[in-house]
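Prompt: May I have another protein with tokenized structure?
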Amino acid sequence: MFVACRTEELPPGESVRIHADVPVAVFNADGEYYAVDDTCTHQDASLSDGFLEGCFVECPLHAAFFDLRTGVPTCLPAKRPVRTHPVTVEDGLVYVHVAVPALE
């Protein structure tokens, strides 16, 4: 678990890239916080640079949409989900609980 930012540093509709073991994108979707691996599973693009629409983010490179709640892509060209991470907010701090990578 690590502190991503203070809540006032991430207003609704914004995102931030955190440099952890793997880059993590943290989003404020209308007051709900989500964290996913920052790299699109289609090509090497930063999802934190993408376009947030509700609880979906559009990859800025080829317009793949990902559901921030599940990490599942909702359209091509992405076919694989991005890894999601639980987020908690306590005392004005946004915490990301980095998920353990799945074995392949």
In short: The longest strand covers residues 23-29. The mean pLDDT is 93.
